[in-house]
Amino acid sequence: MVKEAVMDYISANKAAWEEAFDHRRPHWGDDVPARLQQEHLPFLDPAIVAEVEQLDLKNKTIAQFCCNNGRELLSLMQLGATRGVGFDIADNILAQARTNAAAANITNCEFVSTNILEIPAAYHEQFDLIIFTIGAITWFEDLKPLFAKVADCLKPGGILLLHDFHPLMNMLPLPGEADFKADDLSHIAYPYFKPDPFIENDGISYIAEPYKSKTLTSFAHPISAIINNIIVNGMQLTAFNEYDYDVGLTDVYDGKGYPLSFLLEANKLI
Ligand SMILES: C[S@@+](CC[C@H](N)C(=O)[O-])C[C@H]1O[C@@H](n2cnc3c(N)ncnc32)[C@H](O)[C@@H]1O
Q: Gene3D superfamilies per the record (predicted)?
């Protein structure tokens, strides 16, 4: 049973994500079927590609939590999984995922509309691999129930892959922000530890041009919170890589000595 205050920000985020899709740039997402048919593992960051190419996904069941329009999960299906399930809370974005899957002739992938914290028990112990990609875990205030749901849904021995912005990025001022100094990229503007949420009303920039949007609430999570909440949920860390390049906010800090993104892999203990 999820607490009411938790549901409040999650319901508000659902409305804001659906609104962002309604404001999407013309043809946003329409290229997915063609790219799926013409390219090898499109839409996936090189760090994920390097990792998944070492996994044997043939005849496996895989899932993406917070799958958005499904482009990454549909891409991963190229590696031979027999079944894929994408979970997301935004109904209209999932509708595009289903349309794109059908247009690309991918029939073994389903898309389920749900708050991740409320994924039904029918999906427990079903998956050999669960992935989260960029900008997914930030929508959850408390990582403990989030990774509990991952552990519930993995088969024993199943793998969690998490690729995301490095939380150190939360300390760096971005171009356009008052504290950004193009001539001093060593300037740190914000704290690493940030218990209060980010509250934003500018929409989702990779889907739509800025507009006055419904409120989006997201959260900073230090690396220790990510790792500890994976461990307490009965998973064992098997890899943790950091990269000096950004995966979606700005490239001005790339190669300057900061960890800007990371990839983590863990196994559910047998
Ligand atoms: C930035 S996307 C992450 C996926 C992918 N990296 C991408 O860029 O499209 C975040 C997704 O999380 C979904 N989301 C936010 N809160 C959620 C929740 N409580 N349960 C399920 N999905 C949620 C949003 O609808 C959105 O599609």
A: Vaccinia Virus protein VP39 (3.40.50.150)
